[in-house]
Amino acid sequence: MPTTRCVSLLPLFALAGLMACSGAGAPQNGGTGGTGNPVGGTTSAGGSAITGGASATGGVIAPGGTPDTGGVTVPGGTPDTGGVSAPGGTPDTGGVSAPGGVSAPGGATITGGTSKTGGTTATGGTSKTGGTTATGGLTTSSSTTVGGSTASTGGAAGGKGGSLAPGGTSGSAGKTASGGTSAAGGSAAGGSTGTTAPVGGGDTIPAGYPAPTAANYAICKSTVPVSGGSGSYCPGGGFGPACTECLFGGATYNNTMSATADATSEAGNYAVTVTLGGAATDTSIYIGTESNRNLLALTTIPAGKTLEYAFAVNVRALEGQPDESNAAGGYPGLDLFFSGPTTPPVTAIGYALVTADTKPVMVYMASDSTECDQTSSAFGGWGQMFPAYFHAPIDVANYGDSGESSSSFYGNSKMWGAIKKAWVPGDWAIVQFGHNDKTVTDVQVQANLTKYVNDAQAAKVNIILVSPPARAGSIPVGSQTGTNGGLNGLHAASAQAAAAAANPPVPFIDLTALSTAWYNTLPDMTTLHSYKADHSDTTHTDMEGGYKLAGLVAKAIKDQNIGLAQYLR
């Protein structure tokens, strides 16, 4: 039986102390509700002459790119691929304080140069950011059109646009309205008319995955997004205005299921295929699943092309978090959501519970509200956006839960207990704690994290320790290191020490340092807050901010050549 789903952007409620995952009594900092719209207009690279950066920034959030797409993950290296906020190269393009045109990236001295930003051989070129082999998509990402003075880039990602919102809220492609000589980014809400998202290249469909059929797509229904603030979210987390939902569970949507089918009986891991494209013009699409989980960042399907994508989707009875006080029941079975500036170009869908032949490579997430599957569109945990960076057979099962610490999560049978019950040798676990270990010393947190490592290694499961994203109450971001033995800190040192002390050592990703470095490239607190839940939260991100943090983790996986890198999209 379907239950009420937390979807779409709801009216803002400034309730002090509300946890990010709507959990009662969770001790996270910040977490007040709010729109959390990934509104554009703040980071669009892209002056009329730096369109190479602009397109890269479009990829910043969604670019359908591999792991370092769009600068979200500081594609290509912080100093020369444009980084998170300075597409085109920190030292050459607009400066680090000018993501998206704040300080006129792509000024006259670099305008579309043949070997610099926007040129054919550098940022926006065929082999750099926005190029065919790097940031900007699986195939081309506008390699020849970006970097010129045309208005197609500028709003390439429509400001913050990118993966979630095809454009900024005012349609400008940057805080100073740079972004193309004719206001690329579009004048429509969300800048959707100016979107030049990265071009998709499709996936290689794993053997045994179901063939997409038009009959399955016929089950889907168009929906009207809930409006709020400066834009509107579709069910599943995508930015509209066009939205399609496909609910494949239960008798209501699929007559092959019994009328008594419920969420529990239809839970499991699903192999999913979709056929996209075929339209006479370029079309952009965002794919979400379950509770605002991102499967495919906003991606352009070229005119006349038909592409197939494959996903492995973890479906749980509680779609959000393991703790029932924080979770939403959602709908039974598999849910898919398609959105974009125009009617999503979907023609066929295939889905089936996995078998022994199609078993996915599972990635289990253990963390708190900064990483969990949020049930409100105002928030976005980075683990919730993480699946968009991987292709099948990777399947992300996010057990992150609001308010959990390194000790509370470990002792909960619905959390770490459930993960251990489900995993098999060869699977992966990503563990991140620290925000709710405020009164605990580094030594104790290290001991706690060592338990996770020992459990995983005993089960022949691969494990990655990640330090928490930084708390950002100012720019530059203040110290994240606690005093008196780690008290009130984020315990990045604890995670690093636990990883190094393991036998054999396990990978460690310092998301505290990576997020701090990204935040510090932003020009002001207004820009920082545009990535934060409720546009004021110091700890939690909105969906676009979560996508950027996930990109930092994905890039670190690639840079460190961790085993998961082979599956990056």
Structure characterization notes:
The chain is of the alpha/beta class. It contains ten helices and 15 strands. The strands form four sheets. A five-stranded antiparallel β-sheet has the order 1-4-9-6-7, with no helix packed on it. β11, α4 and β12 (394-398) form a beta-alpha-beta unit. α6 (442-458) packs across α7 (492-501). The longest helix is centred in the last third of the chain and has 17 residues, at 442-458. The chain is globular and about 60 Å long. It starts with 50 loop residues before the first helix and ends in a 10-residue tail after the last helix. The relative contact order is 0.15. Mean pLDDT is 70; it is low at 1-163, 165-197, 227-231 and 251-261.
What attributes does this structure have?
569 residues; alpha/beta; 5-stranded parallel β-sheet; 15 strands; 16% helix; disordered N terminus
* Shape field: globular
Main-sheet strand order equals: 1-4-9-6-7
What is the overall number of helices? 10
Tally the beta strands. 15
User: Could you spell the SSE succession in H and E letters?
Assistant: HHEEEEHEEEEEEEHEHEHEHEHHH
Low-confidence stretches: 1-163, 165-197, 227-231, 251-261
Helix percentage range: 10-25%
Secondary-structure-based class equals alpha/beta
Taking the sheet with the most strands, its summary is: 5 strands, antiparallel
Q: Could you report the average pLDDT, rounded to the nearest whole number? A: 70
Determine the strand fraction and express it as a percent band.
15-25%
What is the terminal separation in angstroms? 35 Å
Radius of gyration from CA coordinates: 21 Å
